[in-house]
Design brief:
The chain is mostly helical and 233 residues long. It is 82% helix and 0% strand. It is globular, with a radius of gyration of 20 Å.
Length: 233
């Protein structure tokens, strides 16, 4: 993979891994009175930990991921079809849970404004940041970038991971900068209001995309099991 292709991969996978939740949590922590240094410390842990975690996985398993013939793995035989069918059913179940949870949240929001739970302590903020770092491995764009980074020399991969963390967590990085210069209150309120406006639409868009992906997986695998040929060869 050339440097230009790696740059494109960095931008696209980071955009796919975009997550405003940590910013909202840090903004809520500021509103709850948690000291700036703890917000900055937890932010550094989350951003730095994400970059280090990705770089470490790149060095440990990145090459092995490149050696896997993914097309042969997912396009050959009924075993692959059953695996795909299981994934489709699991994804469809997750879509149903998202719809039910959204309905429940809307009902509860009529009685109480509860967009983000405010952390009760600085330690809770650090723990939350560590949890976000730990679970990013389940983010598909993160995993794709592990494989992409394995094609580059270590210094380039390291720089790529720093960029990936900053882009995927751009709202959080921006909040950290303004917090550092002492102007966090207004920006935090503005960013929170902005997310409240677009969140319902973003949630619906994600749910629809997941539903379409689940439908494609189910149709593709069923076609192989019934007619002996994948919908997408």
């Amino acid at each position: 993979m050339t440097i230009q292709e790696y740059l494109v991969s960095t931008l696209t996978t980071a955009a796919g891994g975009f997550d405003p939740a940590p910013m909202l949590i840090m903004a809520a922590a500021l509103g709850a009175g948690v000291r700036r240094r703890h917000v900055l410390g937890a932010t550094t842990l989350l951003l730095g930990g994400t970059a280090l975690w990705g770089f470490a996985l790149t060095q440990w398993v990145g090459r092995q991921l490149l050696d896997i013939h993914w097309h042969e793995l997912v396009r050959q035989g009924t075993t692959a079809a059953w695996i795909e069918l299981s994934l489709g059913l699991a994804l469809a179940g997750y879509v149903v849970l998202r719809v039910l949870r959204a309905s429940r949240d809307r009902a509860e929001a009529r009685d109480e404004d509860r967009d983000i739970e405010k952390p009760r302590s600085a330690w809770g903020l650090y723990i939350t940041a560590a949890v976000f770092v730990a679970i990013v491995i389940f983010d598909v764009p993160f995993d794709l970038f592990v494989a992409a980074s394995a094609t580059q020399a270590a210094p380039v991969a390291g720089a790529g991971w720093v960029a990936w963390a900053l882009i995927s967590q751009f709202p959080l990085a921006l909040l950290a900068v303004v917090t550092l210069v002492g102007r966090q209150r207004g920006v935090a309120d503005t960013m929170t209001r902005w997310w409240r406006v677009i969140q319902p639409y973003a949630s619906v868009a994600v749910t629809v995309a997941l539903a379409l992906a689940a439908l494609l997986l189910l149709i593709d695998s069923t076609k192989l099991l019934v007619f002996g040929q994948f919908l997408v060869p």
